[in-house]
Amino acid sequence: MEEQHTPAAPAWGGPSRWWHGPHGRDRWDDEGRRARWPWRSTLLLTAFVLIGSNFAAHAQHDDRLALDAFSRALLLVGSGLLLWRQRHPVFVVFGTAAVALVYVAAGYPYGPVFLPVAVGCFSAVVAGHRRAAWTALGLLWAGHLLVAHWLYRRLPPTGDHPPSWTQEIGIATWVVAVVALSELVRVRREQWSRERAERAQAARRRADEERLRIARELHDVLAHSISVINVQAGVGLALLDSDPEQARTALTTIKAASKEALGEVRQVLDTLRTPGEAPRAPAPGLDRLPELVEQAASAGLTVEIEGEVPAPAPGTDLAAFRIVQEALTNVVRHSGSRRARVRFDHERGVLRLRIDDDGPATGADAGGSGNGLAGMRERAAALGGTIEAGPRDDGGFRVLAVLPWKAKEENR
């Protein structure tokens, strides 16, 4: 079954394939709405055309032929064709124009006979068949000129005379108005379709950004805490028999790290369960750096802070904290060094972070895992900053972050 072809949708040709693919149900619902037979509107238009033509016949009984069975059949056919206007708009616009031309050429009274032509033209233009609609109306007007000004002596009614050119200009104006209205509706529908597509694309983009943000938060929280837990679990196992008190200290550190990780994971998950609500706890920032240094020390890493710890805007504050956290986690997991240096510099609206360790790198993931470095780069890029990470010439590893003091959205 052939469906209508619109500019904002794929061509509906051949048998329906709604049962294929994961979105078949939605596509079937959409096609079902389009493929409905417009019975009610067609019946109303048919009744209006028949009744209006009767009034027109009484008003023009001296100039045109009276309505008979053939004229009413033409009116019924012209109006009935509108049932197919959504499925076959091109056929309908040419069919209604042909019926109207035959009706006028047969000498029947002017009137609502042109209404189905206008509706058919409107449906064709809205469906994207502009050239077909213009051609059908042009042929109808040209045919009317031929009948009214050259063939009127050979056609009924007897003694007919050509209409004035003022009437012809009025008919041409009517044709232009129908086409203009149809084009206006078509343009508006295309605009609505584009706006819907843009809104859907924006919603998908926001969902992707939120998904990446949550993935970064979970990675940073869990990678750091689990690294501390892993180191302390190894210490506890090694000292369980020889130094139970030190093993107890390691277990206490594991408990504190796991509790903190659970709290931060709950905070991230709460934003999923109650979107739009304010978080129950403030987002972490550089004010928690002493706590981070203490956790690193419990994992056997000494952290030296150089420069004054800044207090940037909230977005930059969170990103800076997470970058330092991830960099220290990578030192614990992937470096043979037990010492790291964190340096802060702030100048001209830019915050510079530098995290160094002396190496040597251990394992295949020297310098950090791909997800960790990618997460740091994504955080910096989201603020309009940059991240550089790589080995130093002396065998150590350096992470250099350049972040704006205020994020782009916070400057607005």
Question: What are its keywords?
Answer:
59% helix, 412 residues, rod-shaped, single chain, alpha+beta, 11 helices
Can you offer a commentary on this structure?
This protein has 412 residues and is α+β, with helices and mostly antiparallel strands. It contains eleven helices and five strands, in the order H-H-H-H-H-H-H-H-H-E-H-E-E-H-E-E. The protein has helices at 24-35, 39-59, 69-80, 89-105, 115-126, 130-149, 165-239, 244-273, 289-298, 314-334, 370-383; strands at 302-306, 339-347, 350-357, 386-391, 397-404. It has a five-stranded mixed β-sheet with strand order 1-2-3-5-4. The longest helix is centred in the middle third of the chain and has 75 residues, at 165-239. The protein is rod-shaped, with a radius of gyration of 39 Å.
Helices, strands, pairings?
Layout: H1 24-35, H2 39-59, H3 69-80, H4 89-105, H5 115-126, H6 130-149, H7 165-239, H8 244-273, H9 289-298, E1 302-306, H10 314-334, E2 339-347, E3 350-357, H11 370-383, E4 386-391, E5 397-404
Parallel strand pairs: 1-2
Antiparallel strand pairs: 2-3, 3-5, 4-5
Helix pairs in contact: 2-3, 3-4, 4-5, 4-6, 5-6, 5-7, 6-7, 7-8, 7-10, 7-11, 10-11
